[in-house]
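step=encode ok
step=design start
structure_in=
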């Protein structure tokens, strides 16, 4: 009897072919028409992949008696930073997190002594040397580094995805073979396969608040690796096992 409601129609043809190979993994004997044991299994694949993207969060701030004065300074610094970043090929820049905060007198909380205005600039690129050089230049223009982090680009994750699907399917099939052999089964029939979203662990960001002097060397940065994990869930039926009689104690 053919399996019902299997969601394999939308799967790539190579995946369907790989699943069909499960039936051929055991000696070619007659498949039982009914009965069998249903197996619910999860196959997994994991890879360590070098990070290929660097993101730097920079902050510019100004403090002045008037909010408008502080805002003008921040706007001027940020405009200059955006112009400098725009000259660099392969580096994306965007502004985030604009804020204005009143600084009150410590003795009289109703009195405002000054205003503090802040804005963040996020820089992202795959050329670590060029991005580090840009960050060093912007630090000389009243921008400070708040955070540095490394990650995997969507293109890098997709590059490994198909191979990891195959690895996860091989893991699932091997589990099924081991269990089927222990049951004395001769065939495996695939009933259902589900491919959840893949996942990768993002490294913890590094903090870097100290500005670099013009004479100071650029910091040594290690991009590190991210862990990609992918799983497939499947339901298979082990067929051809002999019925075992259980003798009561």
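sequence_out=
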């Amino acid at each position: 009897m053919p399996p019902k409601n299997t969601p394999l129609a939308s799967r790539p043809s190579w995946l369907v072919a790989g699943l069909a190979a499960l039936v051929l993994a055991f000696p070619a004997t007659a498949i039982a028409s009914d009965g069998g044991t249903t197996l619910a299994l999860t196959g997994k694949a994991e890879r360590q992949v070098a990070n290929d993207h660097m993101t730097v969060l920079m902050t510019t701030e100004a403090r002045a008696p008037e909010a408008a004065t502080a805002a003008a300074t921040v706007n001027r610094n940020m405009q200059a930073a955006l112009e400098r970043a725009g000259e660099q090929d392969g580096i994306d820049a965007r502004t985030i997190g604009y804020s204005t905060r009143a600084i009150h007198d410590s003795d009289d909380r109703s009195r405002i002594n000054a205003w503090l205005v802040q804005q963040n600039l996020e820089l992202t690129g795959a050329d670590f040397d060029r991005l580090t050089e840009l960050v060093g230049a912007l630090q000389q223009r009243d921008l400070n580094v708040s955070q540095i982090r490394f990650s995997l680009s969507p293109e890098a994750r997709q590059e490994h995805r198909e191979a990891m699907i195959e690895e996860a399917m091989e893991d699932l099939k091997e589990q099924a073979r081991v269990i089927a052999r222990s049951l004395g089964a001769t065939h495996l029939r695939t009933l259902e396969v589900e491919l959840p979203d893949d996942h990768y662990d993002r490294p913890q960001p590094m903090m870097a608040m100290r500005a670099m002097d013009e004479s100071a060397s650029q910091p040594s940065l290690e991009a590190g690796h991210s862990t990609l994990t992918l799983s497939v869930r499947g339901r298979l039926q082990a067929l051809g096992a002999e019925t075992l009689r259980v003798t009561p104690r």
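step=design ok
step=annotate ok -> The chain has a mean pLDDT of 81.
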